[in-house]
Structures are given as structure tokens and as C-alpha cells.
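Example S7 (C-alpha cells).
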């Protein structure tokens, strides 16, 4: 059956997603949230790992459900010649092909960019690899912790004097996926202006290195290798997170002397505000460890939300540090549609993290949850490719569509 028109700035754009795990699907997720029709190529004999995580059946895996909303799913066994021919037929009706499978796999299947151009001259291919598709390390594959470690980001995360810690979140995959979506949109713009397709060779490590910022070249300027420095800021002090009552935290950033005096007044810490060790920004920076310890003591018995409200009222930037539970129940985020409700076959209606943009007047609808494996076989094979029912039944029986 035809798919509903969801609107959005990418309405009418079709994306073929030959991806697994997180970074590639995250690219498809963003393009789908902009209105593109995203078709995920899957196979029961070579399942996406995200469908297997969580100890549940392949249509209920929480990781897969969290990232594949408004994506269509078809089955095809790409290890067969007939299966690859079906993929090529899909390419002929596709605007963008995304892949993040093992280096060389697309080329060995005759689905490299030069092959795809022969099928559709203006096709856009976005190929996501750990080190990109070229260079001496292009053969290596890896996951988000590898991206973060190799990019230099992991080394910078941690408190002063501690071993670098990194972060227990998939910022490597999601950042790479968002970067790839941006590149795809730019390639669409280029095609609109010139009629030419493009090959996007996206290195996950390079995408993450771009986030290091000026730290990357700091040694050439200062002669010192940047180290983990917690919440240190060279132009603000105090600048950190401090423990409050009930295990909560408050983040405080003081930019000038007026804010420093206001902080002391709210905390009823006249002695601290008058302490000669903290009489100027340079002195506070020099004595920041003692200052942080004193602020932890002053904040420890305080309610984080109440204290943050009082500080902001006095002109001091301060906010209670939000936990995941806080974020899930945040009225502001719900009101802004930071979360959306989608419908799944297995779990009914459930919340997801929505796209971080609001577009007017053409915001794409995000209402459908993640697809069942092969849920859209009929739509793609019969309506897009025009295969007769008997042909599709035969492909299924012979596990070409598996």
C-alpha cells in the first residue's frame, strides 16, 4: 500500500539505507525526520545487531526501537546474485544510498559509487567508515568507543590529575550520523544546482576529531599537551558542578566580579567573598581547587533547584544538573516536542527522542515507530519495483527475500 505523505522539506526524496548498528541508522533517522522516505535493507540471515540486543525478539529490541522511527524495512539476501540485483533495481529509484558496512563490502558487491553511477548517474552515496574509504587505515572497522578514542576526544574527558575517562554514551555514533545527514543534504543542494550526484566519503574518526576544537593545535601555541581538566574554564571561576542535598548537583559559572559577589551573598558566605585568595579572577583561578572544595561544603545541604533559582534571580548562571529521569519528565521538553509519541506494532504507543529542530510551516510528521523486519516488502517490491505477486512469493520461498 502507498505510504502516507508526511510532509517535510525532504518530502519526495528516497533514501536506501544499507546500514547496521548506530551511526548509519542515525543518519537515516535524521533524514526521515525531515520527511525523506528511508528504506532500510535487512536480512534475517544477516540481522542488524541492534535487533539482537536486549534479550528480546528481533522486533522488540529496545536499541532498534529507539533509533529507527519512520523508517521502512525490506528483506533481501545480499549474499545472493538475485538479491544484489534487487538492490540495484532499488538504487535506480533512489536519491541517496547510505552504507556503513565493512570496508570493501559495497565494492565487492558491485555497489561502489562507480557502479551506482552506472545505474543512476545523479545518485548520492554516503559511505561511513571508521577511517573513511581511502588511506592506509581504510580497511579497519570499529564502534563508537573506537571513534572517540582515536579522535582524541576520549583523552580530554576527565578531571584534573586523573586518568582520561571518556563518556559512557554513544556520542561517537550519533555525532557521526548527524554529520553524515548534513553532508547528504548539502549533496542534494549540489545536485539541485548542477544535476550531479556526489560520493561522500565520511570518516567517523575525523568527524569526532573536528569536535576537539582548538585543543587539537594547542601544543603548537602553548608548548603543552592538553590534559583532562574537568570543568576548568580559563576566563570563568568558579566554573563547575557542586554537590547538593539528596545526591543532586548544581552547575555554576561566574563570569565577573559582580556575579562573584552575588554568589557569596546568596550562599551567605561573606567570608568567602572577602577572602583575599579569591579577590580577582586570576587569584580564583590560581586557587580554584580550594574554592571548589569550599563551594561543595556550602552547597551540600542546599536543595539544588531552589538554590539555582535564587542564583539566577541574582544574575548568577546556575542550573540544577539534570539526570536522565529528570529529562524524561521535563515539562519544557515535552512542551517543545522534544519528545514525540509514536506507534509500534509490538509496544503500542511510546515516547521517542524527537528531532531537535522546529520547522514552520513544513514540519515532517514523526508518528510511526520502528518497523518490523520486512514490514514493507510488499510496498517496495510490488509498488516501487513493480514485481508481480507470484515473483515476490517465489523470491520469499527461495529466501532471496529473507
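Recovered sequence:
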Amino acid at each position: 500500500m502507498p505510504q502516507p505523505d508526511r510532509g517535510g522539506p525532504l518530502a519526495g526524496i528516497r533514501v536506501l539505507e544499507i546500514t547496521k548498528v548506530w551511526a548509519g541508522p542515525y543518519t537515516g533517522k535524521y533524514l526521515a525526520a525531515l520527511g525523506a522516505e528511508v528504506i532500510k535493507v535487512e536480512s534475517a540471515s544477516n540481522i542488524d545487531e541492534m535487533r539482537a540486543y536486549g534479550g528480546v525478539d528481533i522486533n522488540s529490541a529496545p536499541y532498534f526501537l529507539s533509533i529507527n522511527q519512520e523508517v521502512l524495512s525490506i528483506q533481501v539476501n545480499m549474499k545472493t546474485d538475485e538479491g544484489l540485483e534487487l538492490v540495484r533495481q532499488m538504487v535506480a529509484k533512489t536519491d541517496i544510498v547510505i552504507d556503513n558496512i565493512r570496508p570493501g563490502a559495497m565494492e565487492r558487491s558491485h555497489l561502489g559509487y562507480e557502479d551506482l553511477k552506472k545505474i543512476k548517474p545523479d545518485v548520492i552515496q554516503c559511505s561511513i567508515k571508521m577511517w573513511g574509504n581511502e588511506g592506509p587505515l581504510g580497511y579497519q572497522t570499529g564502534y563508537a568507543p573506537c571513534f572517540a578514542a582515536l579522535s582524541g576526544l576520549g583523552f580530554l574527558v576527565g578531571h584534573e590529575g586523573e586518568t582520561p575517562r571518556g563518556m559512557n554514551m554513544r556520542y561517537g555514533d550519533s555525532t557521526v550520523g548527524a554529520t553524515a545527514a548534513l553532508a547528504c543534504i548539502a549533496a542534494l543542494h549540489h545536485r539541485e544546482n548542477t544535476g550531479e550526484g556526489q560520493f561522500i566519503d565520511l570518516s567517523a574518526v575525523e568527524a569526532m576529531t573536528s569536535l576537539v576544537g582548538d585543543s587539537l593545535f594547542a601544543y603548537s601555541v602553548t608548548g603543552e599537551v592538553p590534559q583532562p581538566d574537568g570543568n576548568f574554564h580559563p576566563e570563568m571561576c568558579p566554573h563547575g558542578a557542586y554537590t547538593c542535598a539528596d545526591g543532586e548537583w548544581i552547575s555554576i559559572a561566574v563570569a565577573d566580579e559582580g556575579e562573584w559577589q552575588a554568589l557569596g551573598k546568596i550562599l551567605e558566605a561573606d567570608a568567602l567573598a572577602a577572602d583575599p585568595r579569591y579577590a580577582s579572577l586570576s587569584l580564583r583561578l590560581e586557587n580554584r581547587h580550594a574554592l571548589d572544595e569550599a563551594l561543595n561544603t556550602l552547597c551540600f545541604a542546599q536543595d539544588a533547584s531552589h538554590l539555582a533559582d535564587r542564583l539566577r534571580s541574582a544574575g548568577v548562571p546556575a542550573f540544577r544538573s539534570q539526570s536522565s529521569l529528570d529529562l524524561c519528565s521535563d515539562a519544557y521538553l515535552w512542551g517543545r516536542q522534544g519528545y514525540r509519541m509514536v506507534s509500534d506494532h509490538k509496544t503500542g504507543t511510546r515516547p521517542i527522542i524527537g528531532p531537535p529542530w522546529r520547522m514552520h510551516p513544513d514540519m515532517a510528521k514523526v508518528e510511526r515507530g520502528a518497523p518490523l523486519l520486512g514490514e514493507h516488502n510488499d510496498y517496495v517490491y510490488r509498488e516501487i519495483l513493480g514485481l508481480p505477486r507470484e515473483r515476490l512469493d517465489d523470491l520469499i520461498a527461495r529466501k532471496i527475500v529473507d
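Notes on this example. The domain at 14-211+336-397 is CATH 3.40.50.10540 (Rossmann fold).
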